[in-house]
Model the fold of this input.
Amino acid sequence: MLVAKLIRWGVLLSGVGGVCAYNLAPEPGAFVQPQGWPAPAYHFATNPATAAGRELGRALFYEPALSRDSTISCASCHAPAMAFAHADHRVSHGIAGRLGSRNAPGLFNLAWSTSFHWDGGVNNLEVQAINPLTHAAEMDVTLPQLVARLNAARTYRTKFYRAFADSAVTTPRLLKALAQFTVSLESYNSRYDKYVRHEPGGEFNEQELNGLRLFRANCASCHREPLFTNHGFANNGLPPDSLYHDQGRAAITGQAADRYQFRVPTLRNVELTSPYMHDGRFQRLRDVLRHYTTGIQPSPTLAPALRRPLLLSPNEQKDVLAFLLTLTDREFVSNPAYQYPRQDLLPATTPTN
Amino acid sequence: MLLLIDLLYAVWSLLAAAGSLAVGPPAPGLTLRVEPVFNGKPLVLDSAVYQTGTFDKVAISKLRFYLTAISLTYADGRKYAEPASYHLIDADPEATATLQVRLPGAPAGRLRSLTFSIGVDSAANVAGALGGDLDPARGMYWAWHSGYVNAKLEGSTVRLATPHHEFAYHIGGFQAPYNARRTLTLAVPTALAASGSLTLRADVGRWLDALPLAQQPSVQVPGAAAMEVADACARMFSLYFPLAHASR
Done:
């Protein structure tokens, strides 16, 4: 009797162990801590990454059924070839051609971000997705609507089962799966990275070396290596926009001292993430450099580092540009783990409710 | 043989009876019932029309709040804190939220006081995606400025010069100096101390009377104004005790 019981428990436990090994064991190489980088800010302990969770997150990221009328997905504004930014679009585009007021940024190295959005209003990667999902000018769906829609889709129930050992779709599982995918988007193999690591393919020419020297002397206080951002906020001297009257960080803190301060964006993959600035006002990198050298608008909240003029000759600007192009990571944008999952999405006939 | 078994059964029954006597009659656990009222009368959403000190004909369309961090202090000094204590309370009878909180883990004994918070602590506000009553789909979460709405009160009164004569308070914010969470301790009346159930009254009339409703009919972002509305909100709670009315 006792022996039979023990055997039964043994079988049960090994079954559970098998499920765990398949679903819950972290994949080697899933998240990489690049050499010399700070510890990530994202709390992996409460959302352990698994291959099944990432696959689910990827399917959701590319899934148009996440928008109210099933016309757009996250990838509509965050395309892998553009380092997950939106080429040629100043501001975000929602369903039915609705326009937002800010530029959709590239998505990578999000594990190190301490806040999200241009105004830093979002405090955790997992809850960031609620914004584009529910905003009327973006995907315009409600969370209960979306959870019901995914629960009705057999393919997603199967995917949620694989990821969470339970086929029920819930808001936290949906958000955690999306975060497992977005936090896996890591860019650390640009030519600059190989230069820093003294690896083959990391050779810099004279112009790039001079660009790096000028960058470190003039830009690195905000765009700090290795992430090329200090994760802070700054008024970078742009004339306030007359269209949106965007006050930036002040809308979150309510402090006049934060007026016109916006997130300091990373400069990694900056070659691919045009247009630039929070409202996408500049199309070309040379316009951005021209702004920093001759276009700074005085203001009570102007960043202290920009209060004295940035003097770069036209040739020096070209050198800085040459350096910025070394931050492009082709391995990142072509990583097959990040691309459109052709076979996984719901058929286009998904009912829209 | 049969006799021996009978005898053993008898002994076991006696022991069991003695054991239960030793534990005593009061079962552990406590039921906390929330009772939404307006100036002492049952709160009926949308239909009923109430009166405040300043306004007559006030209608309430929404009352929701997070009742959290519930803890009990006993007459003998012991304390019990409910683990993972987050409850979404909704006055709407059709809501999926609850008006009743059961604390099965609370030990039996005479209570001295009830302590609870209105609103969500900062740890949960930065913890990412949560479920249950803290599910952001429950409609008590701000996406654009990450954080929970601690309490919502919406309604209308004809003399307000706002669109549709409406007022709306969505109170939240967890970062200093604008942490809008409020913690209250209410003494438990002696007559109820060992009853195993408490009724927590939420009197919307007292919330509205503590506010300049006409001057500030809408507060829906964290900040200094939300702090004042949170103070007013905290004034609506009392432990309901039927006998107290007779003695007053």
User: Anything to note?
Assistant: Chain A has 14 helices and two strands. The domain at 191-328 of chain A is CATH 1.10.760.10 (Cytochrome Bc1 Complex; Chain D, domain 2).
